[in-house]
Amino acid sequence: MPKIIHETYIEAPLVKCFDLARSVEKHIETTSNTNEKAVAGVTTGLLQLGDSVTWEAIHFGVKQKLTAKIVAMEAPQNFTDVMIRGAFHSFTHIHIFTESYGGTIMKDVFTYRAPFGVLGKIADHLFLEKYMKNFIISRASELKKIAEKNIEDTF
Predict the structure, then answer these.
(1) Which phi and psi angles does 97 have, rounded to 5°?
(2) What phi and psi values does residue 45 have, to the nearest 5 degrees?
(3) Which of 61, 72, 134, 142 is least buried, going by the fewest C-beta atoms within 10 A?
(4) Whether the predicted model's global pTM rises above the 0.90 cut
(5) In the chain, what are the domain boundaries?
(6) Angstrom distance (rounded) from CA 22 to CA 46
(7) Does the structure show a pLDDT above 80 at 155?
(8) Could you write out the DSSP letters of every residue in 60-125?
């Protein structure tokens, strides 16, 4: 199972980064390149333990739906979402927040299994892992920009 680990230093308080990462509206804003929107479950506000959300987005030129559920949360240090329905065979995304040098380190740990058995493994090797890594890095970069725009502002 591929595992993508990415860390981003953000010059903003831990609680702000934690809340931005679980904001449905900020998720939509930070994934505008895939036209992501929340279409079912929790569609606004901050995701809480036990919440689920269905995202609709365009990946690889195809409109797709994916439902994720928040299965663990220790505010404001971490939360975990897992796919309960969607294109992957499975995925788990752990979001970890640690105070560091007056700011926050946001760490994404994304573990997944591609669908379609052997064909999925080939697709993963050829393009899927790189695509997912770039998606996570891009979203983290956009969250960083939002968080650092005005540190005192809430969102």
Answers:
(1) -125, 125
(2) 85, -165
(3) 61
(4) yes
(5) 3-149
(6) 5
(7) no
(8) TTEEEEEEEEEEEEETTTEEEEEEEESSSSEEEEEEEEEEETTEEEEEEEEEEE-SSHHHHHHHII
Tokens of 138: 């891009």
Q: Is the pLDDT of residue 121 over 90?
A: no
Q: Residue 20: how many CB atoms within 10 A of its CB?
A: 24
Q: How far apart are the first and last CA of the chain?
A: 36
Q: What is the pLDDT of residues 16-34, one digit of tens each?
A: 999 999 999 999 999 999 9
How buried is residue 104: exposed, middle or buried, by Cβ count under 10 Å (0-12/13-18/19+)?
A: buried
CB 46 within 8 A of CB 54: no
Fold classification of 3-149 is Alpha-D-Glucose-1,6-Bisphosphate; Chain A, domain 4 (3.30.530)
The two tokens of residue 116 are 């379609």
Both tokens of 6, joined, read 């990415």
Distance in angstroms (rounded) separating the CA atoms of residues 70 and 154: 23
